[in-house]
């Protein structure tokens, strides 16, 4: 028997079990703000018992509904975008991959395990961290000549940076001209669709990933979509295999994608809640930046603040590569009040 060379697990939000064990507070007494998931998720309609009984129908119209929703030529359903991230290195030719220093944590290890060289970049917002990165990713600046592929989370998680469609399209042009690929993770783009490249995803050298977990609050369904060329879809479909998305999840997601009225109302509601969260954090002396579903605070005292909030039963996500905290949206007025009070108390501790 030999030891397996297993990868180290990447930390994520939503790990409330860890907080419960560490602080001894029962689950029902926590306010979990550690994710960027909409706390007011889509009201899933009743699901027929037949959806539980039968094997998932990969040939239903879910992918056509998704393509229409995103304005894309085609969409491939996968078991959450995490499944696609693991498969992506097998679709791309060898070469250097650019991945953000402060971004979703699964990309770099996925490419490193597959033998790719990974160069970390920072955006202008993190220019003072330039020493820890290989390059700065900035609008109107050429990409490094050695770069073959680029992973861009837009809007970024957790840093909140967002690049315009024109800027991202120019990066795609540069990479495609050298036989490379731009991967755009638009997990949070449903709340701010104007910058999406979904309608251009048919182009070679461009792969767009979309998620229903964040904006629609359906993270438990584990459904995402890959938008890309016919070649990309054929390869990803072969890697995905059959029945990747369950029957009940297909029913729920289809309903959510077709409910335009709910989506319009939710975008307005999230914009108000996000502005309120940023203002609350700033009122307590925090330099908060925000996107629709969460706020980011860069703070050298992130560990102490997380601990202070946790002692009051409020769990937020802490990042170490660039010290800071991500705050999700409170689900109700009681949670808003508790966060306000706990932040006030944390300043005095």
TrEMBL record:
Entry GO MF terms: pyridoxal phosphate binding; threonine-phosphate decarboxylase activity
Aminotransferase class I/classII large domain span: 62-321
Enzyme class, broadest EC rank: lyase
EC number annotated for this UniProt entry: 4.1.1.81
Catalytic function, reaction form: O-phospho-L-threonine + H(+) = (R)-1-aminopropan-2-yl phosphate + CO2
GO aspect biological process, one term: cobalamin biosynthetic process
Keyword terms, alphabetized: Cobalamin biosynthesis, Lyase, Pyridoxal phosphate
Keyword Lyase (UniProt): yes
Cofactor names: pyridoxal 5'-phosphate
Gene3D superfamilies: Aspartate Aminotransferase, domain 1, Type I PLP-dependent aspartate aminotransferase-like (Major domain)
InterPro entries for this protein: Aminotransferase_I/II_large, CobD, NHTrfase_class1_PyrdxlP-BS, PyrdxlP-dep_Trfase, PyrdxlP-dep_Trfase_major, PyrdxlP-dep_Trfase_small
Annotated pathway: Cofactor biosynthesis; adenosylcobalamin biosynthesis
Origin: domain of life: Bacteria
Function: Decarboxylates L-threonine-O-3-phosphate to yield (R)-1-amino-2-propanol O-2-phosphate, the precursor for the linkage between the nucleotide loop and the corrin ring in cobalamin.
PANTHER family: HISTIDINOL-PHOSPHATE AMINOTRANSFERASE-RELATED (PTHR42885), THREONINE-PHOSPHATE DECARBOXYLASE (PTHR42885:SF1)
Protein's UniProt name: threonine-phosphate decarboxylase
Species per Swiss-Prot/TrEMBL record: Trinickia caryophylli (Paraburkholderia caryophylli)
Taxonomic lineage from the root: Bacteria, Pseudomonadati, Pseudomonadota, Betaproteobacteria, Burkholderiales
């Amino acid at each position: 028997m030999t030891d397996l060379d297993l990868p180290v697990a990447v930390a994520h939000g939503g790990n409330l079990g860890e907080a419960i064990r560490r602080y001894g507070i029962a689950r029902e007494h926590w306010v979990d703000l550690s994710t960027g998931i909409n706390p007011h998720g889509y009201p899933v309609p009743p699901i027929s018992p037949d959806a539980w009984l039968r094997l998932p129908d990969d040939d239903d119209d879910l992918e056509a509904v998704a393509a229409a929703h995103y304005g894309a030529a085609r969409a491939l359903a996968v078991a959450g975008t995490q499944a696609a991230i693991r498969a992506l290195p097998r679709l791309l030719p060898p070469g250097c991959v650019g991945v953000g220093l402060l971004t979703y944590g699964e990309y770099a290890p996925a490419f490193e395990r597959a033998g790719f060289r990974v160069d970390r970049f920072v955006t202008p917002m993190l220019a003072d961290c330039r020493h820890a990165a290989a390059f700065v990713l900035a609008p109107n600046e050429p990409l490094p000549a050695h770069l073959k592929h680029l992973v861009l989370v837009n809007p970024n998680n957790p840093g909140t940076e967002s690049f315009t469609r024109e800027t991202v399209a120019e990066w795609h042009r540069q990479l495609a001209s050298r036989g490379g690929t731009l991967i755009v993770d638009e997990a949070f783009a449903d709340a701010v669709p104007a910058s999406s490249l979904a309608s251009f995803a048919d182009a070679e050298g461009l792969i767009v990933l979309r998620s229903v977990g964040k904006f629609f609050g359906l993270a438990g369904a584990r459904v995402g979509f890959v938008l890309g060329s016919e070649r990309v879809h054929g390869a990803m479909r072969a890697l995905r295999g059959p029945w990747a998305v369950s029957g009940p999840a297909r029913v729920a997601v289809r309903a959510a994608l077709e409910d335009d009225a709910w989506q319009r109302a939710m975008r307005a509601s999230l914009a108000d809640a996000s502005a309120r969260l940023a203002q609350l954090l700033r009122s307590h002396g925090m330099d908060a930046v925000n996107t629709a579903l969460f706020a980011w605070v860069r703070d050298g005292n992130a560990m102490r603040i997380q601990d202070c909030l946790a002692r009051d039963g409020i769990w937020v996500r802490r990042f170490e590569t660039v010290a800071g905290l991500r705050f999700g949206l409170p689900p109700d007025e009681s949670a808003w009040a508790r966060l306000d009070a706990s932040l006030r108390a944390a300043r005095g501790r």
